[in-house]
LysR family transcriptional regulator
Amino acid sequence: MMTLVAEDLRVFAVFARHRNFTRAAVELHVSQPALHTRIRKLQERLGHELYVKRGRSLLLTDAGERLALFANDEADRATDFLRTLGIESPRPTVLTAGSGAYLYLLGEPIRRYVAKGRELRLLTGDAARTLEAVRDGTADVGVTALGVPPTDLDCELLGQFPQTLITRADHRLAERRSVRLKDLQDEALVVPPKGRPHREQLERALLDQGVRWSVAVEAEGWELLVHFVRLGIGPAVVNGSVRTSGAVRKVPVKDLPPIRYYVVSRGDRGAELKELLASRQPPGKSV
């Protein structure tokens, strides 16, 4: 009968968190080939593939996700037991979020949490990766924008933001109090790359309205979009949480839905961090 030892669980939990052999090996203080061999042997002993390679990314299989969840649950149980003995476990709280959330929403809560002497590990990922990390226990808490919150996780509204058009002050729409999508007829827009959720939503909305438009430039990340707008390459539609300088005007787009950010968790994981995030502002308040 095959047995899983604590070290197997610890190693796989680190690998599952990073989904990257190089970074996981650095954290575990082992060589990358040694870690690769250990994970391969674990797969052989279990008789199941634990991850698959998709392009440049490593994704956990169903068996891998269940093993990661088990490993993280066991770590939590050990932490709780040590706490009953008055021993504080070194395991940090793990928060995962996208770059926009870190840049514009989470700076102050993170500073306050760390100022309390709490250890915090940060991961980055899009909405799908954030939900996956919370589901398999790799992360205790996630913050991400969601259209429809999943029913299998605890989701609490952190805040909502209008979608806004950002332009240079000399653009024809810069002085408008609000715009509609039809006002973007024949505009060359600064947009995220193909396949990004924001790009897909915007393309569908423009198509539904019969608006002709073109791509001025594709840019990865809100800050680069703002940079290109500031240079005069073209306007962009962004999440209203994005901060801009005085040289860039923000005009709400009336016929696009607001972007809603949620704090995502499972059970009582990361309770203190969730409480701190919830105190950031009243739930449901537009900002």
User: Anything to note?
Assistant: Confidence is low (pLDDT under 50) at residues 282-287. DSSP finds ten helices and twelve strands in the chain.
